[in-house]
Amino acid sequence: MNCDECKEQVFELIEREALDPEGVREVLARCPDCRALFDEMQVALRSAAALPREEPPARIDAAILRAARERSTKVAPPKRRWFQAPQWAVAAAALLAVGVGVWSIPRGEEVAMDDAVVSPADSASNVEAERLADEEVDIATMPAEAATIERPRGRERAQRLAATESGPAPGVSARPTPDPRAKRQLARDADPLPQRKAAATPKAPQAITAGASADMAAIEEDVSENAVKKEQKAMSTECKKRISELDALIEEHELGAAALVSAEDALALGHCYREAGDTAQARSWFEGAALDSKTKRRALRALRALPPN
Amino acid sequence: MGDPSDELLLSAYRDGDASAFETLMGRYRGPLFNVVLRSVRDRGRAEEIYQDVWMKVIDRCDDFRGDAKFSTWLYTIARNLCIDHQRKMKFRRHASLDQPAPGSAQTWAEKAPNPGPSTEALAAGRMMKDRIESAVQALPHEQREVFLLRQLQGLAFNEIAEVVGIPANTVKSRMRYALERLQRSLRDWEPNDEL
């Protein structure tokens, strides 16, 4: 390598990109001029590193960051809603639901044993699980139309249960109230005679949660030919009396009436409706009675004895 | 685990993570501002261009291709804005600092008085920095931009080549000429001259 070639690569040597670093070093070792150039180049680079640095104004940085945040707010995906759970969570929940459903299907003496050892605190959830299991079985045996109508009723009932459990009046046993909504669509479709509504069976108090006025209207309108027929069935004097008392209670307390019905009365009303042939109403009252530890076992037995809706 | 790459941060920002942009900006704000400042030689203009560069990054981040480095992309935007600025200045018939002043062999940059120390108490190091500043300002534009990208941002020669749009060997040549020129400027200077 000659001096010209060396001078060409002095800078590359400093930057560690020389094609022939050993050749450059050999020339630098024997040529004072090349060595001087190399030293000066290094000084220049070191000096350049000392070039004063200035800071951009903070106000401009702030404005840039503000713009960046505005843009990211626009493009950021909306927060996940509860019904947009990740797929793994949905799958896990589905598996759990199936597992609970299978586990909670009543199996003879197993249920009795459960009843015997269950604590009052657990009673509500256990009963609901059993009831849901019953409902699953019932749905399986139902006609398709009835099944599609009955499905949402289960959810509504569960919601009412949750609401009742969260805030019952002191001294009043909280329980779900019978819900005629399941038959509402059937009634609308099947009942060509609105005038029959006046002669409707006295209904149990409706949901004590939200939508009070709507539910009251639903109670008043909830009439079907089946209901009318069932009303015409023979009913014991005691049942007639109980239902009259219930009517009076509803008239006085409207939707709050359900909370004033004792567990024993709820059980009795369930039996009355079963005798009258109104299985849905009977089931609702039994389910309410099953939430009370004193009447739970009897209510569950009655529920199991009910024919499918 | 090392720090996330610039490209990863930009991708996170594209997905709505504003803090990723903040991190990215923290990495480049200083060098970028200094490169722009020494390119346009006017603090007010430099601030405008600096802000415009980042605004373009924000607006165009969806267009960023993963096959390029973020630094290359960022400095390409900055360089284009600086060129636009210089064109506007030419249109306004502003004298270029790189051109010799009328009736003189010296450029405006070379003729400009150094801010220099106002008292003898200033250290020689400070004077040296001022001198380097002046020497860098006096570099021809094409040498200066290569020098600044290399010295202030530490871009690799091939990255500078991509930003400037010239072969990497040409980048190296320009860098070498810039250093030789700086070295000559600094060799001629003696600290006592300033005192």
Folded structure, characterized:
The complex is a heterodimer of chains A (309) and B (195). With 309 residues, chain A is an all-alpha fold. Chain A folds into two domains: 3-42, no CATH class; 103-305, no CATH class. In chain A, 68% of the residues lie in helices and 0% in strands. Chain A has helices at residues 3-14, 21-30, 32-49, 58-75, 87-103, 109-117, 120-141, 144-166, 184-190, 212-221, 225-232, 237-253, 257-260, 263-276, 279-290, 296-305. In chain A, α1 (3-14) crosses α2, α1 packs parallel to α3 (32-49) and α7 runs parallel beside α16 (296-305). Chain A is rod-shaped and about 130 Å long. In chain B, 68% of the residues lie in helices and 0% in strands. Chain B has ten helices and no strands. Chain B is globular and about 55 Å long. Chain B has helices at 6-14, 18-40, 43-60, 70-91, 108-111, 124-137, 141-151, 157-164, 168-187, 191-194. Chain B has two domains: 6-91, Orthogonal Bundle (Rna Polymerase Sigma Factor, Chain: A); 108-194, Arc Repressor Mutant, subunit A. The relative contact order of chain B is 0.11. Chain A binds chain B through residues 11-12, 15, 17, 40-41, 43-45, 47-57, 60-61, 63-65, 67-69, 71-73, 75-77, and chain B through 13-18, 21-22, 25, 29-30, 33-34, 37, 43, 47, 50-51, 54-55, 58-59, 125, 128-130, 132-133, 136, 147, 151-152, 157, 172, 175-176, 179-180, 182-183, 186-187.
In brief:
The complex is a heterodimer of chains A (309) and B (195). Chain A is mainly alpha-helical and 309 residues long.
Mean pLDDT of chain A: 64
Helical fraction of chain A equals 55-70%
Q: Under the CATH scheme, which architecture of the largest domain in chain B would be assigned?
A: Orthogonal Bundle
Sheet with most strands of chain B: none
Number of domains of chain B: 2
- Residues in helix, % of chain B: 55-70%
Question: Which helices and strands appear, and what pairs or packs with what?
Answer:
The complex is a heterodimer of chains A (309) and B (195).
Chain A: H1 3-14, H2 21-30, H3 32-49, H4 58-75, H5 87-103, H6 109-117, H7 120-141, H8 144-166, H9 184-190, H10 212-221, H11 225-232, H12 237-253, H13 257-260, H14 263-276, H15 279-290, H16 296-305
Helix pairs in contact in A: 1-2, 1-3, 2-3, 7-8, 7-16, 12-14, 14-15, 15-16
Chain B: H1 6-14, H2 18-40, H3 43-60, H4 70-91, H5 108-111, H6 124-137, H7 141-151, H8 157-164, H9 168-187, H10 191-194
Helix pairs in contact in B: 1-2, 2-3, 2-4, 2-7, 3-4, 4-8, 6-9, 7-9, 8-9
